[in-house]
Design goal:
Elements: H1 2-54, H2 59-80, H3 91-109
């Protein structure tokens, strides 16, 4: 029973640590994405206004062209973004379970003595 209790405790510790790491990563990524979005939106608005005033093209046609270009890029990124496999969760627990399996297999293979 102590072996099972220690494995459960190990799973709980790793689950908490994994949750903390993922939460930090998600918050950081969301903040970076928000900052990048506003930076890009302001930069894009400025470029469209500058090109529109420097040329004879109306700003709405430039905006439609920029939107079409962004849609095309988004579709390209979405189609190629799912090729990275995720890192396996609970590496220590998996290693301990593998050791436990090997120990059980070796324990069952050894003949018992009648001493």
């Amino acid at each position: 029973m102590s072996l099972i209790a220690s494995r459960i405790e190990l799973i709980q510790l790793e689950a908490r640590e994994t949750a903390r790491q993922r939460a930090r990563r998600v918050i950081g990524l969301l903040m970076a994405a928000l900052c990048l979005f506003f930076t890009w939106a302001l930069l894009l608005a400025g470029v469209i206004a500058a090109v529109s005033s420097a040329s004879d093209w109306p700003w709405y046609w430039l905006t439609i062209g920029a939107a079409a270009l962004h849609l095309l890029l988004a579709l390209l990124f979405l189609s190629g973004g799912s090729s990275n496999p995720a890192e396996p969760a609970f590496p220590l627990t998996r290693a301990e379970f593998q050791k436990d399996r090997e120990w059980i297999e070796n324990f069952q293979k050894k003949p018992k003595s009648n001493a």
